[in-house]
Amino acid sequence: MSLCRSSLFFLYFCFDITIHQVRTQLDDKNYLLALRSVIKKLNFNQLSYDEFRNDIKQLATVDPDDLNDCYDSSFGERNLNIIHMDLNTIIEEYFNTPEQIQLLSMELSDGNQHTDQLLEQRVEILATNILQLTKEVLKCLESPKEKRSRLGITSISHLSEEEFQSLLGDQLYDSMQNSSSEIISGPNLQIPMKYSWTDHNAVTPIRNQFRCGSCAVFSAVATVESAYLIHYGRKRMISPQSIDLSEQSVLDCLQNGVCKDGSYVDESWNIIKRKGISTERERPYQARQTGHCNRNPQSLIYMKKWIQNYQNTEKYMQRLILQYGPISALIDARKLHHLKGPFHGYCGQKITHAVVIVGWIQKYWIIKNSWGKNWGLNGFLYLPRGQNKCNIQYYAGVPFIR
């Protein structure tokens, strides 16, 4: 089994379902009214709700500086504060954002669920997760300061724990293919205290893989976008915001079952080398495999090769980043569901998720994820350096373009 396995529970969907179509499936009822109706019908177990209120009362007495170590109420431009807002209002605000309406529309595209039924399902899961979040925040506050991680409501808080875990692989990444790759020694460079390609206009905006297990595709494409910006960005006056390559054109050329079973980073690079890659405008992401694998004769990118290595030292990875640009990496992501800041909690060594390391500061790796901007720190993961946290040093790979 490979990375980012997605749940069979989910329906795979197209992005051409609009908010208007969602409202049409609501039998012309206003979406917000329907959402409020579902929330009103929500019937918590009274014991659980009483326990939640007691937890909130306890959090309300915590010193603000201590609370800030473990809790972040921001959600994009909104504030979803579990201490000062009632639960119904939080749920309404969460599901009335464009991103969440889009996500609901994806699940409706097969027509197997009625909107009210889906809303009830998602509202109950979010409410359950908020109840659980309060307990996790309280548990965090019991930890030493150096072990605390800031938590909160994220773009994946509407997923159950089982659903979140099903997005991840369940075996070590020990069968990564080495064909068509070259393993080299890291260049001999002086390593600065901090360095980030975000400061050099070489990191494209945060993307969202949604509920397809395509993290390896997103990692591979993100490194190719960065390689293009490093080589041609300044020369051609290209900004990171203007480069958006098509993960879909790669996803469609991989073996069937990627959304369920995941794939490997180098498989995506191999597709780009053999077939080129479209832009997002030409082939928008659909979070499913469409079965249409095509060559891209007008490809913006021409891939030469890639290099990859295993069981790396931190210095080797830093030198790769300095010399060549952001690198693909693999981590254990099983404890990152509610993360809103640097991660200091317990993390295992089981490889489950592909990401991109774009740089570092004194104490942390700076890592680009593919779970949307309302997760981590604006979509980025800050992982402690110097301890192989979450097995971050297991794999390093970087593409070369021409």
Protein traits:
single chain; 402 residues; alpha+beta; Cathepsin B, Chain A; 2 domains; eight-stranded mixed sheet; two-stranded antiparallel ribbon; 10 strands; Peptidase_C1A_C; Pept_asp_AS
Account of the 3D structure:
The chain is α+β, with helices and mostly antiparallel strands and 402 residues long. It has two domains: 19-165, no CATH class; 171-401, Cysteine proteinases (Cathepsin B, Chain A). It is 36% helix and 11% strand. It is built from 13 helices and ten strands. It has helices spanning 19-25, 31-41, 46-60, 64-70, 87-95, 98-108, 115-141, 161-166, 215-233, 247-251, 258-261, 265-275, 314-324; strands at residues 74-75, 78-79, 181-182, 195-196, 303-310, 327-331, 353-360, 364-368, 380-384, 395-401. The strands form two sheets. Strands 3, 4, 5, 6, 7, 8, 9 and 10 form an eight-stranded mixed β-sheet that branches. It has a two-stranded antiparallel ribbon with strand order 1-2. A hairpin with a 3-residue loop joins strand 7 (353-360) and strand 8 (364-368). Helix 2 (31-41) crosses helix 7. It is globular and about 60 Å long. Mean pLDDT is 85; it is low at 5-28 and 177-181. Belongs to the peptidase C1 family. It comes from Dermatophagoides farinae. One of its GO terms (molecular function) is cysteine-type peptidase activity. It holds the Pfam family Peptidase_C1. Keywords: Signal.
Task: Give the count of helical stretches.
Answer: 13
- Overall form: globular
- Rg from C-alpha positions? 21 Å
- Overall strand count: 10
Task: Bin the helical content.
Answer: 25-40%
Number of domains in the coordinates? 2
Provide the residue-averaged pLDDT: 85
Name of the CATH first level of the largest domain: Alpha Beta
Following the backbone from N to C, one meets helices and strands in this order, namely HHHHEEHHHHEEHHHHEHEEEEE
Largest β-sheet summary: 8 strands, mixed
CATH topology of the largest domain: Cathepsin B, Chain A
- Content-based structural category: alpha+beta
| Gross CATH architecture of the largest domain | Alpha-Beta Complex
Oligomer: single chain
Uncertain stretches: 5-28, 177-181
β-sheet strand percentage: 5-15%
Distance between the termini: 33 Å
Question: Any idea what the CATH superfamily of the largest domain is called?
Answer: Cysteine proteinases
